[in-house]
Amino acid sequence: MENGRGGGSPAFLTMLVDINLATRPYEDSGPLWLRWGGALAVLGLFTLVLLYSVLAGWAAARKDRSLIARREQQIAARDQEKAKAEAILNLPENRSTRDRSQFLNDLFRRKAFSWTKVFEDLERVMPARLHLVSIQPGTAADNQLEFKLVVAGESRERALELVRKMESSQRFQQTQIQQESSQAGQTPGDNVQFDISAVYVPELASAGTRSAQ
Asked: Tell me, what DSSP letter sits at residue 190?
């Protein structure tokens, strides 16, 4: 029997080991730079958009400031004109014009005021065989809207009935007969004539509802 030291070659176990002797091992950094480059590009684009928004906002704010300055100058000029007009109206010789102007301004503020509505309200309270001769607007002591009416009819009882109906309505207050005069022989049926004053209360709530609709 032969023992291994005969003519056969000894068997060797071969092992392969990778040894990297470089001081800076090689790494494939392409994907890393690609990711960082994309992020930097997005960040740069966002920065440009933000910068554009800031510049646009600054330009718009500058334009708004310029517009506000012009409007303030116009308002100041209007205030000066208003002060001059008020000074002229406050002169004693212009007192009647001032009072009329204040009255008209008050009427304009009362959006519910309407001559048609006034006549409709009078028609509802006007008794039979009594009619309106004239009507004149004015202002009461408390700056309320006041009307001076001239009515004519066959008897004093008709005028008293008108006063009672006006007082019981929601549109007229402080109704009074100021003057009474005889009209016999002038107009058939108009035996007496009365001057009546009353404060008129516009229907503000209903007017606001109608305007909203």
From this structure: E
Listing DSSP states for 81-119 in one string gives HHHHHHHHHTSGGGHHHHHHHHHHHHHHH-TT--HHHHH
Is residue 29 in a domain? no
Q: Give the HSE-up count for residue 38: Cα atoms under 13 Å, Cβ half-sphere.
A: 5
CA distance 198 to 36: 87
pTM score of the predicted model:
0.43
Alpha helices, DSSP H, located in the chain: 30-89, 95-109, 115-125, 156-168, 204-212
pLDDT tens digits, 34-55: 777 777 888 888 888 888 888 8
Q: What is the DSSP letter of 154?
A: S
Q: Are residues 150 and 76 in the same domain?
A: no
Domain of residue 68 covers 39-89
Q: Which are the contacts of 80, defined by CB distance < 8 A and separation ≥ 6?
A: none
For the record, the structure tokens of 162 come out as 């008108």
Q: What order do you get walking across the sheet with 190-200 strand by strand?
A: 130-139, 145-153, 190-200, 172-187
CA separation for the pair 128, 89 (Å, rounded): 45
Please report which helix (H) or strand (E) contains residue 23, including its range.
none
For residues 72 and 119, membership in a common domain is answered with no
